Each structure stands twice: as C-alpha cells, then as structure tokens.
C-alpha cells in the first residue's frame, strides 16, 4: 500500500507535456506539432468564412507566440528532423543548421512580442489585430513585412507550406510593461467568431515566464 501511495504522489513523466518531461533536442515530430499548434503558446481553432456563393468555408487557424523560446526550439527541432531517415545530411548542411539554430535560440525579444497567425482566411485580416490585456488594447508596432523570427532562425518560422502573417507588439508602453504581474491572460483579436486567448500563468518554461 505504501508503494502505491508513493507512485501516485509522483506521477510518471509520460503524463507531463514534452516541454516539461524532455529536453527540446529529444522532442519527437508529434511533440513539436503539439507545441506549435496546441499548447500554452499556440492556439488553434476552426475559422469560418462565407464564400461568394454563400457557402460556408472552414479552415484551421493557429496563432502562436513565436517570440517565446519554446516555440523557437520546436521550430528548430522540427527543421532538424530528417525528412528521409535513410538520407545522411552533408556536413555543410549540418554546419548551416547548427549556425542557424544558435542564432535563432540566442536571439532576445525583450522589447517585443511576436505573434504568428497561420492558416484560416488570412485575407480577412484587414489590419493588424489588437492585443487585449485586462481590457487594455494595444495595436501592432509599425514594422516592415519581414518576419523577425524567420530572420533570426534563418528561414521559415512555421511548419512547412503554411501561409502566415506576423504581428509585433510592444512589451513596454509609456514606461510600463504591457503584461504585468496581475495579468493572467491576453487575447489576440481575430476576424472570426473566436479570438486567440493565451494564459500567462501557463506560459512558464524552465521555471520562467516565456512569451
């Protein structure tokens, strides 16, 4: 009986999410896809739109906090996984990927929060969506069309063959942090019936807030 109590008190790592149970270099493709689509840092839901003939169209839409370290690690891990297990990568490819990985993961985003929205019906996003924190509204910073995550990570910042739009929000406005200690969530407004909601209290990676 005592042994059973001990087992129940210390659940196995299999019950924990991959970002808690494994080092990122050990994440499987399934782990990476889960982190990039359904995790505290990524929200996916079915977006609806009406076609020209009145037909209702559906498409999955995902918003991810791509400035977070855990998302960038999933991106680099996904990119480093071999598409063909039988193919041995050239040494030059390995060196290139290692250099891109270092640049990607060492990049600091202390002054901005980068949100990548993929899928859905991106043409319906007429302007940068607002970020709402405890009823305070913030518009994206005026930036170029370049993706700062793709620039830092040396290529695509999202899963292959996925259309995406990138929006950059400030971390500090008028000397005050946009997301303070008392804020439990923030929302990225979408043009669809549902918005992308992120729980700040769950966005903890290696004991630190990560967004």
Mean pLDDT: 82
Domain count: 1
Order of helices and strands: HHHEEHHEEEHEEEEEEE
Rg is 19 Å
Report strand order across the widest sheet.
Answer: 1-2-3-6
Cα separation of the termini: 43 Å
Shape: globular
Beta-strand residue fraction: 25-35%
> What count of helical segments does DSSP give?
6
Helix fraction bin? 25-40%
Low-confidence stretches: 5-9, 83-99, 157-161
Helix vs. strand class: alpha+beta
User: What kind of sheet is the major sheet?
Assistant: 4 strands, antiparallel
Number of strands: 12
Short characterization:
This protein is an alpha+beta fold.
Protein described:
The chain has 211 residues and is of the alpha+beta class. The chain has one domain (17-209). It has 6 helices and 12 strands. It has a 4-stranded antiparallel sheet. Strands 5-4-9-10 form a 4-stranded antiparallel sheet, with no helix packed on it. Strands 7-8 form a two-stranded antiparallel sheet. The radius of gyration is 19 Å and the shape is globular.
